[in-house]
Amino acid sequence: MTSSVDYQLEGDIGVITVRNPPVNALSQVVRQGLHEAVTAAQTDASKALLIICEGRTFIAGADITEFGKVPLEPHLPDLLNIIEASVKPVVAALHGTALGGGFETALAAHYRCAVESARVGLPEVKLGLLPGAGGTQRVPRLAGAAAALDLISSGAPITAGKALQLGLIDKIVDGDLHDGAIAWAKTLVADGAPVRRSSELSVPDVEPGLFDEYRARLGKRARGQIAPQHIVTCVEAAVNSPFAEGRVIERELFIECMQSPQSIAMRHLFFAEREAAKVEGLAKDTQRRPIDAVGIIGGGTMGGGIAMSFANAGIPVIMLDVSDEALDRGLSIIDKNYAGSVKRGKLDEDAAASCRALITGSTDYAALADVDLVIEAVFEDPDLKKKVFAQLDEVCKPGAILATNTSYQDVDQIALATQRPEDVIGMHFFSPAHIMKLLEIVRGEKTADDVLATVLRLAKKIRKVPVVSGVCYGFIGNRMLRPYGKQSQLLLLEGATPEQVDNAMQDWGMAMGPLRVFDLAGLDVGYKARQALSDDMKGDPKTYRVPDMLVEMGRLGQKSGAGFYTYDENRRPVPDTAVVELIEQAASEFGIERREMSDEEIVERLISALVDEGRKILDEGIAQRSGDIDVVYVYGYGFPVSRGGPMHYADTFS
Ligand code: T1G
């Protein structure tokens, strides 16, 4: 056997144990070990085989670090065919997260059991791939085509309970998995249970139009992505073709996806996201401070969303506001958000109620005397923020972490309003804070290492993707957004219209074009921020003339019903000729001759604006690595995941 796979006879059960920390990925060594164990077991005294894993999880997939390299034997599909062809019943015992090639391994086995807490899934689509070792052919045969399309095209894991319901696993084991699985295997042997090959099953009847409906739905949900469409083709092949033919189609489309720039980009993001949580020079074993209670200053949209993020992770929150009216307003927004989550099936009634119960309100700073962390989320007024931090310095216990949710202000200046700048850090959430995954962590000049380490670990607990930024105006994301925004204004003056700019970026893959983003954020926010800047800092007036004129006309964006667009009763943007006339007027003021502009030029100039600023940010050490910038833009600014982020895109395509 190999170092990662062990084989022992326990009575008449051949137990194959995989141990390849941290997630038992199917590296070449693991595949080799499994191959040798299953082959040897065919002729030994065992009556049945059990595949089980040590550590925190069953096999969590193929080894992604091997992708893009020369594939080494044994290849996974061949190995799984050997497992399925076993003359002795093979049982797979699942715990943790049995994902991708790991779940496909279990599907090639003849029987599957799991502990209640286990989750199974085929997340390949999140890597721009599809299950390449039989998953698209075996899942439909066990659970039906519709369930297979849901599971594989979403990539979302399901609980063991749901998997049992779908027929993807056969048994939930209580107590110790090893003992329970051995006992079950012995029962199967005693009952003379046959080998059951899912490849020999046929797919239950399919609703007419199912595949077209999925192609259309995925065309919207995963605009421009190839893997989701290929998944539908594979599942359709499972319905219409024998297993072996379906496997050939699956393999061809898998290889096409594997070599695609989209999958290369999404695999880049997989590792970039994990790298982003690591800080050079910050020891892995840095002592962390306990965070058992949190305070939030300001119960507005951001404060409420931040409170929910902590409550949803089981951490009690005290939300502070200036008056009972303001507090009630903030808490009722939270109630509405929880009701919405229940209505959309994201949370059940009980879970929503227990999360909501963790959020209490107060108008008295003294209520924060014992919390471990306070996050300030008041208006972007530097003096107000300093006043809040001076008060927190008074009331908070020694060792409490004081964080600001500012989206661009100088965290070092805010820290100087306290006697404990080492306990001050930036935690920049994105709206809506209970949904958006990105958390920009701003490390101040004096921020202590244990404060940074604590907040990085906490980010994972509240299910956020952390990226560390140094202190500068706008940190990573908003700093890059400024030249991007300025470029969008120059494009308007030179000949484009708001809808042409936005459509070009949306067709290219951005979740939303720049002008719609500015309308959503509120043109008055940028206007007020500009008022606080000197002309030098404001830069070229061509880059803010039109938004200034719009604000001075009372067109503040979506919230006032008009900005670069007019908004209908369903808040949908409607192009407005009055805005084009305004742009033409501004262009003539600057003596600019407007001209035809191509979508390619629009995309090229806007993305270059992002990338150029990204390079400055790297040169200045504000961001540790280019992958961090990619994670910020994909998780915080709607940059297409299938293009890997602005820096990856620039490295790959220019
Ligand atoms: N391959 C290689 N390394 C992996 C890995 C994998 N599949 N999964 C995780 N790691 C590393 C990760 O980089 C990190 O390393 C450490 O393990 C801990 O991960 C043929 C082709 C399992 C839910 O997509 O979703 O099978 O940073 O920090 O939060 O059809 O990892 O410590 O050096 O994420 O507890 C399909 C990917 C592959 C699952 C655990 N499988 N992994 O989450 O820990 S494609 C996946 C995850 C496939 C077949 C196809 C998560 C996790 P480091 P972590 P976690």
In short, what is this structure?
The chain is α/β, with parallel strands linked by helices. Helices cover about 50% and strands about 10% of the residues.
Which ligands accompany this protein?
(2S,3S)-3-hydroxy-2-methylbutanoyl-COA
Molecular shape = globular
- Biggest pleated sheet: 8 strands, mixed
**Average pLDDT value?**
96
Which blocks of ≥5 consecutive residues have pLDDT under 50?
none
Radius of gyration: 28 Å
Q: Strands across the major sheet, in which order?
A: 12-11-10-13-14-15-16-17
Strand and helix layout:
Layout: E1 5-10, E2 13-18, H1 28-41, E3 48-53, H2 76-84, E4 90-94, E5 97-99, H3 101-108, E6 111-115, E7 119-121, H4 135-143, H5 145-154, E8 158-159, H6 160-166, E9 171-173, H7 177-190, H8 210-221, H9 226-240, H10 243-258, H11 261-276, E10 294-297, H12 301-311, E11 317-320, H13 324-343, H14 349-356, E12 359-362, E13 373-376, H15 382-395, E14 401-404, H16 411-415, E15 424-429, E16 438-442, H17 449-461, E17 465-469, H18 477-494, H19 498-508, H20 514-521, H21 523-531, H22 535-538, H23 545-552, E18 566-567, E19 573-574, H24 577-589, H25 599-619, H26 626-636, H27 646-653
Parallel strand pairs: 2-3, 3-4, 4-6, 5-7, 6-9, 10-11, 10-13, 11-12, 13-14, 14-15, 16-17
Antiparallel strand pairs: 1-2, 7-8, 15-16, 18-19
Helix pairs in contact: 1-2, 2-3, 4-5, 4-9, 5-9, 8-9, 9-10, 11-26, 12-13, 13-14, 18-25, 19-25, 23-24
Residues 22-23, 25, 60-65, 76, 97, 99-101, 104, 123-124, 127, 129, 131-133, 135, 274 line the site of (2S,3S)-3-hydroxy-2-methylbutanoyl-COA.
